[in-house]
Design brief:
mainly alpha
Length: 192
């Protein structure tokens, strides 16, 4: 992990992990910690690429929040920050992300856009939350150029094309096409 950034990340990630089961009393603390984590990562990412170990370290408490709480129980303010954080992580993680993780993050963002987490609850997610989910989807689905590769460019090995093709191929599998279709439908619905 980045030497100078480690204490700052630990100061956010450890308490987040401890608060991963949301309660009415912990929501404001979790929201503040997520904001602090986003700010720290933005400052770090502007200076150098995020490493896979750093991404995994940050993702662990976030994934714990998602595992320990039903999506409908996660307030918009927290969910919006989770998606902002995931979008930030995915800008770098995309290069090394396995297909299964890519699929799970894509499906989660798509489900929030479609409102699957609130069906029957009589409420729709805030526009800011849905916009953050769209930003996360963009970070997952946009093609990269070779000059964005954190490992640098190499004319003989264009990782951007290979990585994009990996996700594009997976998105075209019969099992995943309905998810893509529902997500596109939800995106179109959000733009109305």
């Amino acid at each position: 992990m980045h030497g100078l950034i480690a204490p700052k990340l630990k100061a956010c990630c450890v308490p987040l992990l401890g608060l991963s089961t949301l309660t009415p009393g912990s929501i404001s603390k979790v929201s503040a910690l997520l904001s602090q984590l986003i700010d720290t990562l933005r400052a770090t990412a502007s200076q150098r690429p995020l490493t896979v170990s750093l991404i995994n370290y940050v993702f662990f408490p976030v994934s714990s929040i998602l595992r320990n709480n039903a999506p409908a129980a996660i307030p918009d303010q927290v969910l919006e920050k989770i998606f902002a954080l995931l979008a930030l992580l995915c800008e770098w993680w995309w290069w090394e992300m396995d297909v299964r993780t890519w699929e799970q993050v894509f499906m989660f963002a798509g489900a929030i856009l479609a409102g699957f987490d609130t069906k029957g609850k009589g409420k729709e997610r805030a526009d800011e939350t849905r916009e953050a989910a769209v930003q996360c989807l963009w970070a997952l689905a946009r093609p990269r150029t070779p000059d964005e590769d954190p490992l640098g460019t190499d004319a003989l090995f264009v990782r951007s094309d290979r990585t994009f093709a990996k996700f594009q191929t997976h998105a075209q599998t019969p099992a995943f096409v309905p998810t893509v279709g529902q997500t596109v439908n939800s995106l179109l619905g959000c733009t109305e």
